[in-house]
Specification:
It is a single chain. The protein starts with a helix and ends with a strand. It is globular, with a radius of gyration of 19 Å. It is built from four helices and 23 strands. Strands 9-10-11-12-13-3-4-5-6-7-8-14 form a twelve-stranded mixed sheet, sandwiched between helices. It has a seven-stranded antiparallel sheet with strand order 15-17-18-19-22-21-20, with helices on both faces. Strands 16-23 form a two-stranded antiparallel sheet. The chain is about 10% helix and about 45% strand. The chain is mainly beta.
């Protein structure tokens, strides 16, 4: 991948809220977006657990072996607001790249709040209040404010309206294990096709909180391992304290990337054929800084309820974009960048196999 494309990739991962490794990703939001962002990336996605599906019922009180896919997801999604906690979170990719963060998490009646401090790499502290994200960079003395629809910086199972997760994954409890001193159920989310990876999740027995996550290929290779190395589920973290720190910007220059909510169709784009299991979550038109060289960028996010894919579309620039498609990966996150038509460059990124990104890139087309 050439230097220009490396710069584009860094810009894309920055938009997704990723660091040196595709941190928690999935939840991109994972991730989240990721994510989820990882990574890809929970709050603000709206809707019920699965549109059109029968009610799963409460997972609490059921024998763990009897929980369905939907009930496991429901329990893991609700877990972060059961207790305040602090912890040290480590993400390790198959390539050996590692990132470590310190996390403070709390909820009140209206807000879910987090403070995440990077312990290696470039110093930064990220605050999240629902879908509002504020990143403090002490070296540049800047604070950047964004709004993101998915993923924080640790494993979280998001609720994505319209997905039918039970059609594309089978959940099986495969045992128990201890992580950071807590007993957890180990649940294997097995993909039902080649368009997505599998996941092993360690769900803390009392709360359901995901305290460890592995992203796994079809042949069993662990692409990324994310886990709390230290965790306190009895921490006295006050939501108002996190909120106050988030709003204390004195001494920092405030910057933002203006974003307008839209849809792919409103901007003249459609998927010719839906990618099985993936539904549109959000779409934004973003104005990038001149230094990024991209001008207006359209970002559209798709999710199947666990995995997510972001498509970034921008005007093709022969001085900035290479002639041939470019592909790279960071742990479980893959990136594909290529010319989509005569005047458009697309970058597809997500915690999915490369072939899934190729399907998205080839099916996306302009209709006006």
């Amino acid at each position: 991948m050439n230097i220009r494309t490396q710069k584009d990739a860094r810009t894309v991962w920055s938009l997704m809220g990723r660091g040196a490794v595709a941190a928690a990703a999935l939840w991109l939001g994972l991730f989240g977006a990721p994510g989820v962002g990882l990574a890809q990336a929970g709050a603000g996605t709206g809707g019920g657990l699965v549109a059109g599906a029968a009610s799963s019922g409460s997972a609490e009180g059921l024998p763990t072996a009897d929980r369905s896919v939907l009930q496991w997801v429901e329990r893991m999604h609700a877990a972060p607001c059961q207790r305040a906690y602090t912890g040290t979170f480590v993400v390790l990719s198959a390539s050996g790249a590692m990132s470590t963060s310190r996390i403070w998490h709390a909820c009140d009646e209206r807000n879910r709040l987090e403070r995440v401090e990077s312990l290696n790499g470039t110093p930064r502290t990220v605050f999240r209040r629902n879908d509002e994200v504020r990143t403090f960079s002490p070296e540049s003395r800047t604070v950047r404010t964004d709004r993101r629809d998915t993923g924080a910086t640790f494993p979280r199972v998001a609720v994505v309206s319209g997905t039918a997760i039970y059609q594309h994954y089978a959940a099986t409890r495969v045992g128990q294990d201890r992580v950071a001193g807590y007993l957890a159920d180990v649940v294997w989310f097995k993909p039902q096709d080649a368009l997505r990876f599998g996941y092993r999740l360690w769900s803390e027995r009392d709360t359901g909180l995901v305290i460890k996550l592995q992203t796994v290929t079809a042949d069993g290779k662990v692409l990324e391992n994310a886990a709390f190395s230290e965790l306190d589920l009895r921490a006295t973290v006050q939501p108002e304290q996190i909120s106050r720190l988030m709003d204390t910007t004195a001494g920092f220059k405030e910057v933002s990337a203006p974003a307008t909510r839209t849809s792919a169709e409103a901007e003249g784009w459609v998927l010719r054929q839906p990618v099985p299991g993936f539904v549109p979550v959000s779409c934004h038109q973003r104005s990038m800084a001149a230094a990024d060289g991209a001008g207006q960028v359209l970002q559209c996010l798709y999710s199947d309820g666990l995995a997510s894919v972001s498509l970034f579309l921008e005007p093709f620039d022969a001085t900035r974009h290479p002639a041939q498609p470019q592909a790279t990966s960071m742990g479980a996150t893959h990136l594909l960048a290529q010319r989509l038509n005569a005047d458009t460059w697309v970058t597809a990124v997500g915690e999915v196999p490369l072939q899934t990104l190729k399907v998205f890139a080839t099916q996306f087309q302009r209709v006006r």
